[in-house]
């Protein structure tokens, strides 16, 4: 490869380096918190909550939290616990607090959730269970 071609490739690479976010998702602040309840709205402790392959267990109040930075445009949250039907749903990237309602394995209804979008200035209110 001649010198001119190498220089052109280098210039193109440098110009495109600043444009990466146009083609792939860039890192974004992450906040997904929530509580897991049974059909009678009692907290479900020790349920497994999975987010991007990371698994956490709910505390005694059914609380969970995922935070940090992530390069993604969307994500899935899954919740499982023995004796209950699993829950899984995906959303576009944003800040969320989720109330997950797990249905028992013998119930007619499916497990479900209510997703609440959070304003960035209120995120600190929803991290309590992760800081105990």
What are its keywords?
132 residues, mainly beta, four-stranded mixed β-sheet, four-stranded antiparallel β-sheet, 2 helices
Provide a compact summary of the structure.
14% of the residues lie in helices and 40% in strands.
Describe this structure in words.
This protein is mostly beta strands. It is built from two helices and eight strands. It has helices at residues 3-17, 20-23, and strands at 27-37, 48-51, 54-57, 63-71, 74-80, 87-92, 96-101, 112-117. A four-stranded mixed beta sheet has the order 4-1-7-8, with no helix packed on it. Strand 5 (74-80) and strand 6 form a beta hairpin. The longest helix has 15 residues, at 3-17. The N and C termini lie far apart (60 Å).
Q: Topology of this protein?
A:
Blueprint: H1 3-17, H2 20-23, E1 27-37, E2 48-51, E3 54-57, E4 63-71, E5 74-80, E6 87-92, E7 96-101, E8 112-117
Parallel strand pairs: 1-7
Antiparallel strand pairs: 1-4, 2-3, 2-5, 5-6, 7-8
**Sequence of secondary-structure elements:** HHEEEEEEEE
Note the overall shape.
elongated
Structural class by SSE content? mainly beta
Percent of residues in beta strands: 35-45%
Rg on CA atoms, Å: 20 Å
Q: How many DSSP-defined strands?
A: 8
């Amino acid at each position: 490869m001649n010198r001119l071609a190498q220089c052109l490739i280098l210039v193109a690479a440098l110009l495109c380096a600043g444009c990466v976010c146009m083609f792939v998702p860039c890192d974004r602040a992450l906040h997904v918190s929530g509580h897991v309840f049974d059909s009678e709205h009692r907290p479900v402790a020790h349920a497994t909550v999975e987010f991007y392959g990371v698994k956490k267990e709910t505390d005694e109040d059914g609380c969970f939290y995922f935070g940090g930075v992530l390069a993604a445009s969307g994500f899935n949250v899954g919740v499982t616990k023995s004796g209950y039907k699993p829950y899984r749903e995906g959303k576009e990237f944003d800040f969320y607090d989720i109330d997950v309602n797990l249905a028992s394995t013998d119930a007619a209804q499916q497990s479900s959730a209510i997703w609440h979008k959070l304003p960035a200035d209120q995120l600190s209110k929803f991290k309590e269970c992760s800081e105990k």
